[in-house]
Amino acid sequence: MQIARRKSGIKYVSLSLLAIWLLPTVCGAGDYPITVDFTGEYVNETCEVSVNGGSNSETVSLPLISTTALSNSGGEGGKTGFNVTLNECASNQAVLLRFNSNYSSADTLSGNLLNQTGGGYSKNLQLRLRKEDNSQMIIDDLNTADRFEIREGETPVTHQYYVTYYSGSDGPVTAGKVYAVAGITLEYE
């Protein structure tokens, strides 16, 4: 008989907790205040972005190169320039531009975009992005973002960038197709 009471006591505690968790759903909204917090930021206007004088979604074609050019880990080749232009921005502000990995994976060690995987795609190949001064723009990294200074009456503003093939550290690069997509994130100061 005592064993049964102990078991029922444990069940009672469990049922009490369950009853407390269900209590708010059974009671009316007037018994418990319900709050919803909304946050956001209103900005004057955002910039229009174009790549190579076209739309905000363009293709940059790298040249054909031999796998021997990337035979060692950390090798780079096929440097190709492209432009990003900001237009119709609010005046007298700074805009930080960074590339993100929203559409293709990135290697967190090298900071590069990873090539598409699957049949026919080059293995161990990455794409490295660089600023006009040749410094690397690490994917998803605000610390390596490029700064656009937007002055009164001085838009559009164009910056030059480069993309290169890059040999990762997971073995030799194999011949094949290359495809990766970088998103662009703008942060207004």
Explain this structure.
By secondary structure, the chain is of the alpha+beta class. It has one domain (48-188): Immunoglobulin-like (Sandwich). The protein has one helix at residues 2-26, and strands at 48-51, 76-87, 93-100, 106-107, 112-114, 125-131, 146-150, 157-167, 183-188. The termini are far apart.
Shape: globular
- Give the strand content: 25-35%
Number of domains as seen in the coordinates: 1
Look at the structure and give the CATH class: Mainly Beta
Structural class: alpha+beta
- In angstroms, what separates the terminal alpha carbons? 73 Å
CATH domain fold name:
Immunoglobulin-like
What's the rounded overall pLDDT mean?
80
Largest sheet: 6 strands, antiparallel
Number of helices: 1
- Order of helix and strand elements from N to C terminus: HEEEEEEEEE
Tell me roughly what share of residues is in helical segments. Answer: 10-25%
CATH homologous superfamily descriptor? Fimbrial-type adhesion domain
The tally of strands reads 9
CATH architectural category: Sandwich
Physical arrangement of strands within the biggest beta sheet = 1-2-8-6-5-4
Stretches where pLDDT falls below 50 for ≥5 residues?
Answer: 1-29
